[in-house]
Amino acid sequence: KRHSDEFIASQRFLPYVPVDQQEVDTRFLLHFFLSDPGMALIRKASPGTVTRNRTLGMKAFEELQIPLPSIADQRAIVKNLSRFEGIRSAVKRAGEDARRVMNGLRQRTIDAAAALGEPVRLGSVLELARRPVQVEPQREYLEIGVRSFGRGIFHKEPVSGASLGEKRVFRVAEGDLVVSNVFAWEGAVAMATASDAGRIGSHRFMTWITTSEKVDPNYLCQYLTSDRGVAQLLRASPGSAGRNKTLAIQAFQDLEIAIPDLGSQLTAVARLNRLAEVRSLTESRWSIAEASPQAARNEVFSKFV
User: Fold this and answer.
1) What angle in degrees, to the nearest 10, is found between the helix axes of 26-34 and 262-301?
2) Which one of 53, 124, 136, 167 has the fewest beta carbons within 10 angstroms of its own beta carbon?
3) Beta strand pairing status for 177-180 and 189-191?
């Protein structure tokens, strides 16, 4: 590591060192001020009403009254809380390794299935299903959105018909292949489930249904959110201004993707669903590990206030 003296900071950063290292451990103070009780003190000493325009001054900070146990107890608390930080780091590394492995398996599964099929124009097996909704100002509506990188549909907060104004909206049905035409190039494609049925989406969300019994829309969704599918969507989404790349209906219909027989599609989807379940468990484990240091801090410092 390079020595910290090689770095600089503006006057916005207040560097503090202990007057007596046998009285206070700065690592203890770090954990305390990151805890909810500590942050409450910081906010109390940060005047202002605009969310991100609340400035903590030196005088206000230095006048804060904080709990300060013996140096031995401080170091014991730091040691204990550092264990949680270590667990979080270990789980994060393991999760990243697992995601890399699962992403590789997912791509190989898609590639293997695609190798069994012939290129098929999407417009020959899909049709756009628009279900216009006549918006009533006094009614409440539930909208959907589609996350990028194949992370599925999410639900927005309820909105009134009056707030929708002249916005064109369409009803979503279970089994729809939903494609965001503005973010398709980064994998904003998802399958609508029963929990999404009856909700609405703007014209930016294209809802497609299959026209062939030999095609499983779940396979199409998995393919289009894979590396090779996203690459095709990117090429079909013209534009160069950062995230301003729009996929047109015709461009989507003209895409050709390799579709194997129905049995191979169903086998691939089943394998990919199992991978998704494992990934979900991995992410849940990471969420717990990510929250554990803060929970531990709050548990410790709530006893002091």
Assistant:
1) 120
2) 53
3) antiparallel
